[in-house]
UniProtKB/TrEMBL annotation:
Alphabetical list of InterPro entries matching this protein: P-loop_NTPase, Small_GTP-bd, Small_GTPase_ARF, Small_GTPase_ARF/SAR
PANTHER family: ADP RIBOSYLATION FACTOR-RELATED (PTHR11711)
PROSITE patterns found in the cross-reference section: ARF (PS51417)
Keyword Magnesium set for record: yes
Keywords from the UniProt entry: ER-Golgi transport, GTP-binding, Lipoprotein, Magnesium, Metal-binding, Myristate, Nucleotide-binding, Transport
Full protein name: ADP-ribosylation factor-like protein 5
Length: 184
């Protein structure tokens, strides 16, 4: 009877903490995203040098979210954070057409990393509130997302300042870490 209750309790109230690594080019909105999820409000941010880490709770799940600096000289250090990662959030500035090729190269580099082979990948198409933002279809094409065959992935329209789309993205990750759902 004790084992049955323990199993029931674990199903409804899991204590496992899942690790999410959040990456993207500088000025994409990673830190704003992190603190909108953590605090529920947009905060004034400075460029991240190194990392920020916060815990986010969603549907009885705990996520340890690592926001990594996106400047060119910091991107090579991203891989040091990949061990034991359950999901990756790639935050894109949807208005940064000039650097979408760089974002694509960084995405495909991280997809090849040995510690991320089982990680789900959420792409947040951030800054959708701005009139010159590329939409999800444009970004999907520009990033060649349909060529990703060995990772569950999803692209989510979002705005870190208002919070639009952020919790929908976290819900997609929650489904993946709990073992449900198929790739995009």
């Amino acid at each position: 009877m004790g084992q049955l209750m323990s199993s029931f309790w674990s199903y409804w109230f899991p204590n496992k903490e899942y690790k999410i690594v959040m990456v993207g080019l500088d000025n994409a909105g990673k830190t704003t995203t992190l603190y909108k999820l953590h605090l529920g409000e947009a905060v004034v941010t400075n460029p991240t040098v190194g990392s920020n880490v916060e815990q986010i709770e969603f549907q009885n799940l705990k996520f340890e979210v690592w926001d990594l600096g996106g400047q060119a000289n910091l991107r090579p250090s991203w891989a040091t954070y990949y061990r034991s990662t359950d999901a990756v959030i790639v935050v894109l500035d949807s208005t940064d057409r000039a650097r979408v090729g760089i974002a694509k190269a960084e995405l495909f580099t991280l997809l090849e990393h040995e510690h991320l082979q089982k990680a789900a990948v959420l792409i947040l198409a951030n800054k959708q509130d701005l009139k010159d933002a590329m939409n999800v279809a444009e970004l999907t094409e520009a990033l060649s997302l349909h060529s990703i065959k060995h990772h569950d992935w999803h692209i989510q329209s979002s705005c870190a300042i208002t919070g639009d789309g952020l919790w929908a993205g976290i819900e997609w990750i929650a489904q993946r870490v709990k073992g449900g759902g198929d790739a995009q």
